[in-house]
Amino acid sequence: MPALIAHRGDPHRYPENTLAGLEAAIAAGARHIEVDVQLSADGVPVVFHDDDLERLCAVPGRITALTLAQLRTLRVGGEPLPTLAELAALLRQHPGVHAFVELKQESIDVAGEATLLDAATGVLAPVSDQCTLISFHAGILGLAVDRGWAAGWVTDAWPDVLPQGMRVWFCDVGRLPAEGSVNPFAVPLAVYALSDPALARRLAARGAAYVETDDIGAMRQALPAWT
Question: pTM for this one?
Answer without folding.
Answer: 0.98
